[in-house]
Amino acid sequence: MAEAMLSRLLANGYGANQVIVSARSPERQAYLHSTYGVTVASNSDVAAAHTVILAVKPQVFSEIESELADSSVVQHPGTVLSIMAGIPSARLRRLFPQRLTFRAMPNTPAQVGAGVIALATDSAATEAEVVAVKELLSVLGEVVVLRENQMDAVTALSGSGPAFIALIVEALCDAGVAVGLSRSLTQTLVYGTIAGTVKLLDEREIHPAQLKDAVTSPAGTTIAGIEVLETAGVRGTLIQTVKAAYQRAQALN
Ligand SMILES: NC(=O)C1=CN([C@@H]2O[C@H](COP(=O)(O)OP(=O)(O)OC[C@H]3O[C@@H](n4cnc5c(N)ncnc54)[C@H](OP(=O)(O)O)[C@@H]3O)[C@@H](O)[C@H]2O)C=CC1
Ligand SMILES: O=C(O)[C@@H]1CCC=N1
Predict the structure, then answer these.
(1) Phi-psi group of 64: left, alpha or beta (phi > 0 → left; psi -120 to 50 → alpha; rest → beta)
(2) CATH number of the domain that 143 lies in?
(3) From the CB of residue 80, how many other CB atoms can be counted at a distance below 10 Å?
(4) What is the ipTM of this complex?
(5) Predicted model pTM
(6) Number of domain units in the chain
(7) End of a domain among 149, 171, 198?
């Protein structure tokens, strides 16, 4: 995710000289420097920047936290923006008491600027400070401002969502192959069907049930398929899937 943010920032007018990055392995550090031309520095150096973006795994954050707590940089003013799942802003605020604290939850379509990014703002931030963070995140896609107590739910739905959708896409492609279509044709049909369905629902503001009913002819093919989905409990399975991801986000906290 950090690399997605980095590449999108550079592609959208931010200069390589405005960004410094940190990574753990020397291989990764060399890759980031040679690919993007950015300065690679220690966590402490990065944490001295005006805007600090925290994008390590939540489990790794404890190591960074103790490393940073020992350095004076945590006293610097500015902004800290975390994309880590399950780490509350209160914990970030304890580490960076002088900084405004924002939490965001992007998702992987951010790599192509098509992400949905949930943002919980700091109540002490001015309108201009909120706008600055929104502008930063807008290089990744659509920014939605919400309350921090909604962040674990967002993590489960849109943060993890691309993996759930990808699994469904893969299964549908396999289904196309199972009924005799080539892999490449199947991919074109499945990608187009999903993108087109979402576009139709969105642009015409149709309820999904309305669209399902419109496709479903009496004694036709679609209702035969719908019966299988309902018998398998796909609706309940998807609800349980998101609830499991939500509970995991809460546990990471
Ligand atoms: N993946 C996703 O779809 C999403 C992830 N997130 C959140 O983003 C965060 C990162 O996830 P993701 O990008 O998938 O994870 P990755 O493992 O891909 O990236 C984590 C990065 O942290 C670096 N890192 C690890 N340890 C340290 C350290 N001690 N000091 C400095 N850098 C370090 C790694 O460097 P190295 O490679 O050298 O180890 C790596 O570049 C998580 O908190 C996750 O919750 C949020 C939304 C979506
Ligand atoms: O799986 C995870 O924990 C992270 C958070 C959202 C997407 N990936």
Answers:
(1) alpha
(2) 3.40.50.720
(3) 24
(4) 0.96
(5) 0.94
(6) 2
(7) 149
